Amino acid sequence: MLRVIRAMVGLFCVISSVDAADWPNWRGPSHNGISSESGWRWQWSDSPRILWSGQLGKGFASMAVCDGKVYAMGNTGGQDVIYCLDALTGKEVWLYSYPCELYDQLHEGGPCATPTVDGQRVYTLSKAGDALCLDAAAGKLIWRKNLVSEFGIKLPQWHLAGSPFIYGELVIYNAGTWGLALDKSDGSSVWQSGKEVCGYATAVVGMVGGRETLVLVGSSEVFGVEPRTGRLLWRYPWKTDWDINAADPIVANGMVFVSSGYNKGCALLKVEGDRVEPVWSNRAMRNHINSSVLWDGYIYGFDGQVGGGGMLACVEFSTGKSMWTASGMGAGSLLLADGKLIILSEQGKLVIAEASPKGFKELASAQILDGKCWTCPVLANGLLYARNAQGRIVCVDLRQ
Questions:
Q1: What's the pLDDT tens digit per position in 125-177?
Q2: DSSP 177
Q3: Nearest-angstrom CA–CA distance, 365 and 341
Q4: With the C-alpha atoms ordered 355, 44, 398, 373, is the resulting torsion angle positive or negative?
Q5: Nearest Cα residue to 117 out of 135, 103, 101, 90
Q6: What is the DSSP secondary structure assignment for residue 288, as one 8-state letter?
Q7: What is the pTM of this model?
Q8: Do 335 and 320 meet the contact criterion of CB atoms below 8 Å apart?
Q9: CATH node for 1-201+374-400
Q10: 9 DSSP assignment
Q11: d(CA 290, CA 305)
């Protein structure tokens, strides 16, 4: 059971001037790590208020926030648990659990894929390939498929991590060689690629080379796919040590930005037909686990490995030129809102900074978590949600 500590009295009487927005899936409604919210509090003299805190199971899945509810996952006692919490109080609305190993090789283990809310349904994925569709209001199971036993895909070394991606009537997973799509209504198979090991990133859709393209980062290649049919449009070699390609690609200006850690680096890819050529490639941005954001022509993200040596970096999108780096936050995670970077350091420090190519400028900071923090926080309706690897979750009030 989730234990909730409520720190505010009369919470429902608080008036907010935030231009609010939900965050229904990994990387937000536009799948790019950018929030449309404005008017939230990005400076403070004292630490911001913790409205509530609680305990999930172990894991690295981020949160989805929709219609006043927070959806999260964790693993405890050999069970994956899907939580639905009240967004304002942290009180449990419902939970759903099923047997799943922790899979804690060289880390704490637990689920990595973030729940995806689509209308009245929520979609989740376990490390072992358990794809679930639940009623978002009551937590009732609608359908369940195991991508390994039913479709024969091979699991990567650290198991599945990409979040479910909704495209029209499909739910698409980075599973198999270049993805797998199910009918989101009943879980029936729509298309499947090969059965080889996949990457750890989530799929994105955008215009690439004049065509709407599903872009996936596999274990050793970047793929462009026709999203409705799964037809392969193009592929580009992208081999990284240990096959760890975990950061989501960024699609912009008809091109694809891709980045990986282990000193692999990054590249901007231009596509013409089935031909792919790098506009530039270098090691200015080496996203190990978390993805970058693109804002006003510049990429902001964490360059380097988790566990030591990571730095916040800014790179020009069109040229790959390194603009600046800033240390002291490890290889954390970030999102962007109202022209500000919302950063969670690897050690649980919340940092607000200007998103500017001129240099790193911290606006405010506060320690909000301890332990290992590899999971990207979420801003929704003026409230920031963050968690650590052990499953502690906090809700920070950033309303004016």
A1: 999 999 999 999 999 999 999 999 999 999 999 999 999 999 999 999 999 99
A2: S
A3: 12
A4: positive
A5: 135
A6: S
A7: 0.94
A8: no
A9: 2.140.10.10
A10: S
A11: 10
